[in-house]
Amino acid sequence: MNIKSIYIILALAISNLVNAEVCELPDQFKGKIDTFIIKPEVSCGANIFINTMPLSLGAKAKLAKKDQNNLALLGRVAYEELSDMFEKSKIDIKIEEIKIKNRDKKDINLRHYTGTDTKKIIMYVHGGGWSRGSLKTHDQLCREISKRTGYSVFAVDYRLAPENPYPAGLNDVEDAFEWVLENKGKNVKVLVSGDSAGGNLSTALAIKRIEAQQKAPDGLLLLYPALDLQIPEKTEDRNADGYFLTRSSVNNYIKGYLGKDFKEQAKNQKVSPILASSETLKALPPTLIIAAEFDPLTAYSKEFTEKAKAAGAKNINFELAEKTIHIFAQYPDLFKEAEQALDLLARTAKDF
Questions:
Q1: Span 192-207, pLDDT tens digits
Q2: Disulfide engineering: 115 pairs with which of 11, 152, 317, 343, CB 3.0-4.6 Å?
């Protein structure tokens, strides 16, 4: 037995002593991963995801006849493979596909998940680093939100970077919001929800509308949002590496979204909501932020919440999902923490 094998056995033994959970690989991964090393600080779902996510890069095979040097395209295909891997128990719900025009006369695809409660509507903005993600990757999550709240959910398929840098994605989100207000939102509260980059766009939408003195969302439901796009020169964040989303990958997403002038662009409060003025933050609609304990974006969510409260925001709440990682709410079949988070999101939506 070599030194590496001894180390692996010891690591697994120590991990299992610290973490009482037994992480059993799904059948589809058995035989593909020889050694499953457990991180004792995170829960079973996070361990499985961290260890199996690289297998999604098998998407490269699907690009054999395409441009494999196109990292954005590769990332998009890989992200959709994650959905195929981890979205299993989809809720049966009536869906309507809608196509609208944005301000540039280009198509925006919306997917309407039909709810039973007509008191409110939720517009959902998917994550994916502003460069990936789609109606497909967030289909299960939108079904879950619609089922748990009873409300209709309108998912937005906005333009992606780097082909369409800022402000294209934000403009599409605002155009979709205006369409929902005009066509579905009469005498109905319209909440906006989003995860990661979608949480950034959701918050930026609210800030943009408040500044322009236009109708803003009636509430924000944010899952591990990106609220500060200023790239730090260095970081001592313990979550910067090792938990799926890394500080390095965040930086690359930001550069792709904002283009060559990313440093200057990031100083805009419609890009980095954490920079919004006190007056704007005070006017924020009721807001729920759910963050993951092991996520490089979490510190900024905490800071944003504290800053908004200090400015006088009346109803902004931060909740931390412990022992889990960025993306967890998207896969309730894998992450047990998703159940509690989505239930909280649904209860909060009804209170807004």
A1: 999 999 999 999 999 9
A2: 152
